[in-house]
Amino acid sequence: NVSDHALTLTGWTLNTGKGSYDKTYALDALTVPIGGFxxxxxxxxxxxxxxxxxxxxxxxxxxxxxxxxxxxxAVQLLNCNNDPVDTLIFGDPNKDNYLDDSxxxxxxxxxxxxxxxxxxxxxxxxxxxxxxxxxxxFEVEEVSPxxxxxxxxPCDVSGNGLVLINEVLTDAAG
Length: 174
Description:
This protein is an all-beta fold and 174 residues long. It has 1 helix and 11 strands. Mean pLDDT is 83; it is low at 152-160.
């Protein structure tokens, strides 16, 4: 949450897709504090809450993420009006015609993560609506559940009021 106030995500959802958006996860019980993060994790993963950033929240969800080896897969954050707020489309080609945040068929596609990698936002709090520009692969040693990714934002993005996808550990090949 890069806004200047806590954000309640009542009615917001996180959608995932392998071929189409076929899984939806409600974010209703979450109020994200100023500067806060939400770690959405699989039930088999138990985060060490003492190592999370102050104010970081956790949510258990058996996310159904693919590894995008033959076609793009996607994760999308929708607000309470069902409008896309942030979209990550990874893997090439986009044969399933996933749409970017502007409603156009996405041509900017994040690279897939390999074994020992996750996909993370290049610059924390910055969203260009272009997956390739916004996301990159990070080594698992660099993953930052509940924290900013390794590079701090190069510019002031406070007050834009967006909640963004920060990092995704896909079902990586290998």
